[in-house]
Amino acid sequence: MPSATSSSSKVSSPPAAWRSSSPPRAGPSTRTPPPQHVCAAVNAQVTSIPGLAPPHFDFAEHVRSRSYTMQNFVFGDDPFETAVLLDEGVERLLPDTFQRACASPSCTFEIGDAGEKGRGMFAVKDMPAGALVLVEHPAVVVPYLIGLDVPLRDVYAELFGRLPPEAHRALMGLANSREDCDHREGIVRTNALGIQLDVPDVAHPELTTHRAVFLNTSRCNHSCGPNARWEWDTASFALYLSAVRPIQQGEEITIAYTACTRPRGERHSTLHAQYGFTCACTYCALPCAAASDAARVALARFWSDLPPFEAWCVDGRTPDEWLVKRHLEALRLIKQEGLQVLDAERHVDAIAMCYGALADVEMFRAWTERVREREARRVWVGVEGRERARRRALVFAKWLSNPASFPAWGWRRTFCVSKVEGEEEGKGEDVV
Ligand SMILES: C[S@@+](CC[C@H](N)C(=O)[O-])C[C@H]1O[C@@H](n2cnc3c(N)ncnc32)[C@H](O)[C@@H]1O
């Protein structure tokens, strides 16, 4: 495990300043905002994405006020470099040095032919759920919204040109599904994953979202039931790709480009509009969408429809097994739809809690053991994550050896208000 104190330098060559001005570097008064129809289109796009939009976003003002820096990030003794275009305000708030990323496991994948999807990433060995597939720094990072009035083609040409020749070649070899823009911009738009650079500037939420292109992870195709998930860690400026269910040797490794709990038609519209392809994943190849759509919508609403755990503990009108059955049903739907990428683990946690509240020692131990095994396999991103995992492991060990130390132990037995005889007979039994 690398030490948390080893660090990487942010700049490998002098940064260039890019200002949203014409000519470059002129003062704010000379800046020309893009034409009104462009501003209106960007404003509409931004305000349609809840996580992105500040209350009164105005792209013309954004262009007038932003300045950018272009530089290369290097990572300790790793020869890899990332070419970044960053808003100067964001860049100032990033750490001066990055923590060393976890070592990437060797020989987990290869890039190969994925048929009509083009190239894809394939497992070269069996991997259990939770296994780390890959740790990777991005090749390029750009803000999601670039408020420059110089052509993007010039910006991308300079940014790509900052990479060492081999990385540059690999980047230029990535897929490009966009015919509506310059080739380099097409590569970014086809391959970028949306990352958040955690900048504590609540007045400008639009500034934190960035596009990051990776030489390997960007080869992952989309699936509506993906077998892998990725997490971004700003502290190490790296992406962690891990299995969400067991992956077999030779199986394609897939991620989700869009929310998979929406019905098939909506997923297809989004994928088409944003990425320009029609999904050819195994889930979309199934002839009938209705049952799958219903299952996905039910999973999307599961947690908001569920009464709080504490309410079930005191509610004598629902049978003891009611809440456990709801979670077991959710786990069944998750397996059916291949949606382990949703927080399937939360259901296992919840079932362990239910058995704790029912003071059922055997079942509480069985389900808590499942939680413990899963956590032991899981990849924890960042120093804080690993520390939290260490503390949680201690807590599980305590609960397993002494179930009564579980904080909600026997709550349902202690606090449940018994059903008044004859009142609302059978209520809750038909819920599952
Ligand atoms: C990020 S790239 C993935 C790697 C790419 N297949 C390659 O050859 O490098 C995204 C592109 O892959 C293709 N793709 C990804 N997932 C797909 C899917 N589920 N169905 C069809 N095409 C897909 C589309 O052409 C999409 O624009």
UniProtKB/TrEMBL annotation:
SUPFAM superfamilies: SET domain (SSF82199). Residues 107-258 form the SET domain. Residues 1-36 are annotated as: Disordered. It holds the Pfam family SET. Transmembrane segments: none annotated. Residues 1-30 have a biased composition (Low complexity). This is SET (Su(Var)3-9, Enhancer-of-zeste, Trithorax) domain containing protein. It comes from Lyophyllum shimeji. The lineage of its organism: Eukaryota, Fungi, Dikarya, Basidiomycota, Agaricomycotina.
